[in-house]
Design a protein that fits this description.
This protein is mainly alpha-helical. It is built from seven helices and two strands.
Amino acid sequence: MTVDQLTDTFAALADPTRRAILTRLADGEATVNELAEPFPITVQAVSKHLKVLERAGLITRGRSAQLRPSRLHGARLGEAAEWLEKYRPFWQERLDRLDERLQAPDRTERR
């Protein structure tokens, strides 16, 4: 994954509405009207979010008569997860050290 693709992916994922849309699309394709139902925003605003997700390669949009159902396209999410996975050892080591400190007897109790 190129840096620009990664930037587009994370920029698209930065918005909670877009993340919620992706969560919904994980259950199957949906139209803009179906995706807009749970949100307190207009169908046009949801459509703009879909364009961002499509440009980032996170969804695809089909054409069925006048409808344009959206589908999750997981390849970019997988690439972002793979990139993040490289940092797991870094965080795991720090969390392990924190756990050791939290489990150690308090020095002030011994005095």
